[in-house]
From TrEMBL:
Signal peptide: 1-21
Top-level taxon of the source organism: Bacteria
UniProt keywords, alphabetically: Cell outer membrane, Membrane, Signal
Biased composition (Acidic residues): 536-547
Composition bias type Basic and acidic residues, residue spans: 555-565
All copies of domain Organic solvent tolerance-like N-terminal, residue ranges: 49-183
Name of the protein: OstA-like protein
UniProt keyword Membrane, yes or no: yes
Gene3D superfamilies in the cross-refs: Lipopolysaccharide (LPS) transport protein A like domain
Length: 592
């Protein structure tokens, strides 16, 4: 029984070997000159060019060279001098030297190797070519020339069926407009699409892109970046969960958790969507945007439905539209829109509508809270000193109304057409109100006992503040009115016409910038797939089953998977004078 099993195993082995041998078709060749030199090349035929190059063909591949050593029994040859290799109409390769095993369909080329495809040209010192896998591989440095760019790397692999290069280790893509440095880059020749993996930069004269996973169209000059991605425009940095970049339009957009940093003006804008137009030096931010600028060692926060920042660094302008909210530790405010000129230090709080108030649409005038004071009007201007960054003055235009809660009860009120407030070390100390002014304030003694309620009308008023509370009031040009005892002052007349206390809207912390607003629905980011896991280029083989041949220039250890460069061996020069004992032309079967 054991003997029978052994025969079956032997028969199966022989059949398998026979089948494998039949699949490995023999290499055909033509040559002007053929000789043998058993002493130097035992078992080989030496082929040489006289007028025509030596020509090999094997299963769709053609090779031309000046000289060759052909091991017919092993189905293996070594080619020397002006080597050219073609596979169909799409792959051609030239080199000084090449080897080819017809059984394994594995080739090796060295010495000024140039492999050409319709869209790309690969140049390297040495190249491995597996025809079964339809893959080429180098690990001693290579250069790929595309129609738009040049790519270099230490290690590279080309997948012919996908028309794809996979570069690793010191990858550099050079374009006339930019340079890409990456840890790993997959490049598709037909489309010019590049997939970037690991720490990657794209540098040009006007911008630097960084990402750890991204996509770039090298011919269309557009990109999409995720994972720690950012764009640096020298004076402005854009970060986000995903970034889109269009070099042709000088445009970029960021989505989800975006941060735009102005490195010159020390300001930061956050939100969940941003568009950047570099040529116009403008940024538009939506989806819960908030801008933070440094002012006198204190940050000013501005939030609105949409924020737009325009202008060169020295003349930045911030505009906010719809439901504007401002917060600073000693001041807060609201308006329909806002305009901030960082060069002049002017901030405008504007009502979106200057038309008459109707029962349908109630105007929400801009409002500022400073200390215990509330100021409203059709338009409010805040003026800061650009050098000291301290607040200088405040101006309220049309329907100016100042309200301050009394220490015990009621409200101290001042109204007029225009209001000008002056600040010292960011604290308001003086307010002038002009044109048709009217005051109503509670007068108290040092013990806070109410002396009466003062109601006065005059052409203008000056109010002096002490520690953010009304201290003194001066009336000009024949004021009318005076102090009235509390019991003689009707309760229903203790509020001036136009009174609108909005203390419940006051922002007490920066978190109040978003009070009452729902969280935005964030866009689902389209990821970039990880690179395909590459199978090992060199298959594991038995000791006596070589990818090339025992007569190969390479050692078996050179055909193993590793990152080191292949050994640099001296180029073997094969000349007819070194091979032939005489100059006669011989038949391939003739023994010398």
């Amino acid at each position: 029984m054991k003997y029978f099993n052994f025969l079956i195993l032997l028969l199966f082995t022989c059949c398998s070997y026979s089948s494998y041998a039949q699949d490995a078709k023999k290499i055909d060749y033509t040559s002007d000159r053929q000789v043998k030199n058993e002493e130097r090349y035992p078992g080989a035929i030496i082929l040489s060019k006289v007028e025509n190059q030596v020509h090999f063909t094997h299963q769709g591949i053609e090779v031309w060279c000046d000289n060759a050593v052909f091991y017919n029994q092993d189905n293996f040859f070594k080619a020397f001098g002006n080597v050219r290799m073609h596979q169909g109409d799409t792959v051609s390769m030239a080199s000084n030297y090449a080897e080819y095993n017809g059984t394994t369909q594995f080739a090796f080329a060295s010495g000024k190797v140039v492999m050409q495809r319709p869209q790309t040209t690969l140049k390297t010192d040495s190249l491995f070519f597996d025809r079964v896998k339809q893959q080429a591989y180098y690990r001693s440095g290579g250069k790929v020339i595309d129609t738009a760019s040049v790519l270099t790397s230490t290690v590279g692999r080309y997948y012919m069926e996908q028309d794809k290069y996979s570069f690793v280790s010191d990858v550099v893509l050079t374009n006339p407009e930019y340079v890409i440095n990456s840890e790993q880059l997959d490049f598709y020749s037909e489309t010019g699409h590049a997939y970037l993996y690991g720490p990657t930069t794209i540098e040009s004269e006007t911008s630097t892109v960084y990402c750890e996973r991204g996509f770039y169209d090298t011919r269309g000059d557009t990109g999409y970046f995720v994972k720690n991605s950012q764009i640096d425009y020298k004076n402005r940095k854009v970060e986000g969960d995903s970034l889109y970049f269009d070099r042709n339009r000088n445009f970029a957009s960021a989505t989800n958790n975006i941060v735009v940093t102005d490195t010159i003006n020390q300001s930061v804008v956050k939100g969940h969507y941003a568009e950047v137009f570099r040529e116009r030096d403008s940024v538009i931010i939506t989806k819960r945007p908030v801008a933070a600028t440094l002012q006198d060692k204190d940050s000013v926060f501005i939030h609105s439905d949409t924020l737009m920042i325009t202008g060169v660094p020295e003349e930045r302008v911030i505009r906010g539209f719809y439901d504007v909210r401002i917060f600073k530790t000693d001041m807060s405010g609201k308006s329909d829109s806002i305009y901030v000129d960082q060069k002049t230090g002017l901030t405008k709080l504007i009502n979106k509508s200057s038309g008459p108030v109707t029962s349908v649409s109630k105007r929400r005038n801009p409002v500022i809270w400073s200390g215990e004071s509330q100021m409203t009007g059709d338009t409010i201007h805040l003026k800061s000193n650009p050098e000291t960054e301290q607040l200088d003055s405040l101006m309220v235009f049309n329907n100016a109304f100042l309200i301050q809660k009394d220490t015990v009860e009621g409200y101290n009120q001042v109204k007029g057409m225009e209001l000008v407030g002056l600040f010292r070390e960011n604290d308001i100390y003086q307010v002038d109100i002009n044109k048709n002014t009217e005051t109503l304030n509670y007068m108290r003694n040092d013990q806070q006992e109410l002396l009466g309620i003062n109601r006065t009308v005059s052409s203008s008023i000056r109010i002096m503040f002490n520690e953010q509370e009304i201290d003194e009031i001066y009336y000009f040009d024949d004021p009318e009115g005076g102090l009235i005892p509390e019991e003689e002052f009707p309760v229903n007349e203790r509020l001036l016409i136009g009174f609108n206390w909005r203390g419940e809207e006051r922002l007490m912390t920066k978190e109040d910038l978003f009070k009452g607003k729902p969280l935005p629905e964030l866009v689902r980011i389209q990821g970039i797939p990880l690179p395909e896991e590459q199978e090992e280029f060199f298959d594991q083989r038995e000791d006596d089953d070589l990818l090339l041949n025992e007569n190969s220039r390479l050692q078996p250890e050179d055909l193993q998977n590793k990152e080191e460069d292949p050994p640099q061996q001296e180029q073997e020069e094969l000349q007819p004078a070194n091979l032939l004992k005489d100059e006669s032309v011989t038949d391939e079967n003739e023994e010398i």
